[in-house]
């Protein structure tokens, strides 16, 4: 038998109202996003010819791979109560430099190893600035992203466009399929699985989430919060390099005019926030990031199929990002979160 409950107490408990916010917060946001994505697909199928074709869905998944990988790295940083605006500069800059070195005759594996090492260094710099020098993450990563792509442009690039050699490993990232699944989707799928295992089943992953949920408590209990912060930025930087390679592999080339504010950055942020990774830190799942990637991929595809101008597409994407941030702020009020774990 359960504990005895007095009538007055039972009446009081029965009258305690449950707000809509509390009800929604109890539901895994990934499922909400998947449901919304399915609804958008149904409406899109009715209004857009060939939208529901197998070939179009394959295209959506392939084109979503790069920003999905980037969003996973961004999500890891945000879970630890940080933010990284350098990932586009690091990823696209690494792709530019790699192709430039290959164009000059450097073996591909050496170029990839060199730029992966530079990406690792950029992640360490970000982490050290934020964790040890306590530079606000917003400004530290904004600066390193601009330095990365600007420095690569000045030091290594001599053409306006670099093409991906057809026989290269980078080209292989998007060529063909395995069991009917495009290779970019397989690469992104592997990243999602590894990230899920890391966050859910390893001590560093669980500590990163605990650190984002309550930084002071994590530090008092002995968690190595500063090294963990550095680790999140290293992970984001290395995944950015991979995302850059996947992106140029799909496109077949990279332009030297791209900037650290490339739309892929804001797409990755949108994916993370839509997927339920709270900007307050400590909340969110890799499944949610996957759901956010699918939603944004479907949305982008519909915008293109309807022939909307770039300005209108940016307007819609911006509105979606604002709506996602507003929903996150409503679901996790800043007054509560700030009292618990401090400002970014």
Distance between the termini: 48 Å
Q: Any idea what the radius of gyration is?
A: 22 Å
Low confidence ranges: 336-344
Provide the CATH topology.
Answer: ABC transporter involved in vitamin B12 uptake, BtuC
Number of domains: 1
GO molecular function, one term: transmembrane transporter activity
Main location: membrane
Organism: Nocardia mexicana
InterPro entries: ABC_transp_permease
Structural description of this entry:
With 344 residues, the protein is an all-alpha fold. The chain has a single domain, classed as ABC transporter involved in vitamin B12 uptake, BtuC (Orthogonal Bundle), CATH 1.10.3470. 73% of the residues lie in helices and 3% in strands. It is built from 16 helices and 4 strands. A two-stranded antiparallel sheet has the order 1-4. The C terminus is likely disordered.
Key descriptive features of the protein:
globular, membrane, two-stranded antiparallel sheet, 4 strands, 344 residues, ABC_transp_permease, ABC transporter involved in vitamin B12 uptake, BtuC, disordered C terminus
Gist?
Pfam families: BPD_transp_2 (PF02653). Helix 4 runs antiparallel to helix 12 (225-251), helix 6 runs antiparallel to helix 12 and helix 13 (263-274) runs parallel beside helix 15.
List the helices and strands and how they pair.
Blueprint: H1 7-15, H2 20-25, H3 29-47, H4 54-79, H5 87-103, H6 108-131, H7 137-156, E1 161-163, H8 169-172, E2 177-178, E3 181-182, H9 183-201, H10 203-213, H11 215-220, H12 225-251, E4 253-255, H13 263-274, H14 286-305, H15 310-331, H16 334-341
Antiparallel strand pairs: 1-4, 2-3
């Amino acid at each position: 038998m359960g504990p005895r409950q007095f009538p007055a107490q039972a009446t009081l408990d029965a009258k305690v109202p449950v707000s809509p916010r509390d009800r929604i917060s109890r539901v895994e946001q990934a499922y909400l996003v998947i449901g919304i994505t399915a609804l958008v697909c149904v409406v899109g199928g009715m209004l857009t010819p060939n939208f529901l074709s197998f070939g179009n869905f394959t295209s959506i998944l392939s084109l979503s791979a790069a920003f999905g990988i980037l969003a996973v790295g961004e999500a890891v940083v945000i879970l630890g109560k940080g933010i990284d605006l350098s990932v586009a500069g690091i990823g696209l800059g690494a792709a530019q430099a790699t192709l430039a070195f290959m164009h000059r005759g450097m073996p591909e594996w050496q170029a990839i190893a060199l730029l992966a090492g530079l990406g690792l260094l950029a992640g360490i710099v970000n982490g050290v600035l934020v964790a040890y020098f306590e530079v606000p993450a917003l400004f530290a990563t904004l600066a390193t992203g601009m330095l990365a792509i600007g420095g690569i442009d000045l030091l290594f690039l001599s053409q306006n466009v670099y093409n991906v050699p057809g026989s290269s490993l980078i080209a292989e990232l998007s060529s063909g399929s395995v069991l009917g699944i495009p290779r970019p989707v397989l690469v992104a799928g592997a990243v999602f699985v590894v990230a899920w295992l890391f966050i859910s089943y390893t001590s560093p992953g669980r500590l990163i989430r605990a650190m984002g949920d309550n930084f002071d408590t994590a530090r008092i209990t002995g968690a190595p919060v500063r090294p963990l912060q550095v680790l999140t930025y290293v992970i984001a930087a290395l995944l950015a390099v991979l995302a850059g390679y996947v992106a140029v592999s799909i496109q077949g080339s990279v332009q030297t005019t791209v900037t650290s504010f490339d739309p892929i950055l804001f797409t990755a942020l949108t994916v993370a926030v839509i997927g339920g990774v709270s900007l307050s830190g400590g909340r969110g799942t890799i499944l949610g990031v996957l759901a956010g990637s699918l939603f944004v991929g479907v949305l982008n595809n519909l915008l293109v199929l309807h022939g909307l101008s770039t300005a209108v597409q940016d307007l819609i994407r911006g509105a979606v990002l604002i709506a996602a941030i507003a929903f996150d702020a409503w679901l996790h009020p800043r007054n509560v979160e700030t009292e618990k774990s401090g400002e970014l």
